[in-house]
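Limitations

Structures in this collection are predictions, not experimental determinations, and the ligand pose is part of the prediction. Treat each record accordingly. The example that follows, with MTE as the small molecule, is included so readers can see exactly what is and is not provided: the inputs are given verbatim, and the output is the predicted complex.
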Amino acid sequence: MSKVKVPYIAPSEITPEFVGQSRRRWLQQAGFGVAAALASDAFGLRDAMSATLPPSLPNSTYQLDEKLTSEKDITTYNNFYEFGTDKSDPSRYAGAMQTEPWTVSIEGEVEHPGVYDMDSLLKLASMEERVYRLRCVEAWSMVIPWQGYSLAILLKKVGPTSKAKYVEFVTVEQPKNMRGISAHILDWPYVEALRIDEAMHPLTLLTFGLYGKSLPNQNGAPVRVVVPWKYGFKSGKSIVKIRLTEQQPVTSWVKIAPSEYGFYGNVNPQVPHPRWSQATERRIGAGVFAPRAETLMFNGYADQVATLYTGMDLKRNF
Ligand code: MTE
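Predicted complex:
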């Protein structure tokens, strides 16, 4: 049995914090009507960004009956090596990243390549999913209310050609604003990739926000991917380019440490990292004395994604 269940979601949890005008537009598009839009303004939504997030709706496929990780933990315990290798570096230093204006270029094996600004990216999907995700990241995990829509919506729009076998994500490189780049820990920019069927899977999310707010810089503003059945390193932050390719891209971690990080990065408790077991995980926020939780195959999403890997040796393809 998968861990994905359908809990009750309080309407207050669904209320995002955005610019009233644009929120109204989204609510109308999402079928809520003017009355609901005006009522939502009465909650005192604060201006958060010029391009707004669509409201996200409960979606039974994506719910977890797990306690959410606190917003503070989600936004202060991060990996974003462009800002340093300490978990606290991204929240301390990512404020320097310039996120406006921002464009994402779609290139390579697509019928309709193009450059999207944030507003046009956000408008691509009219009915958004409410997403609760359990994420195992290396040896720890969090449950994060991400907001966004399935990457498949964008990919279908640009039309992969018959040669498109992989989707590569190139993230931003701002040497002046990213103090970790001079450390040469990785070959910048940070690059990640998925097989096209993984990228088209509805659980692969183009992500714009969390906890009803636009993404903080340290979590990958203004747009990132989230692939919830994979280890965190597969989810590139602050994406500027999405390239569809025929050949398997060489991703940043595979390039620097191929024996430790594979192309797939699927959460798999049976396959240890060369330097540590991956059978259990520490829940961030559970307290130092809380027992470690057992890590689930594909992070609990086996029912949804296991068929992507039928017949594959997952020890070799780690
Ligand atoms: N994206 C970029 N551009 N740079 C990074 O260093 N780190 C990855 C991934 N995406 C990383 C990145 C790793 S190792 C993890 S665990 C997750 O982001 C962490 O995401 P979070 O801080 O939002 O939890």
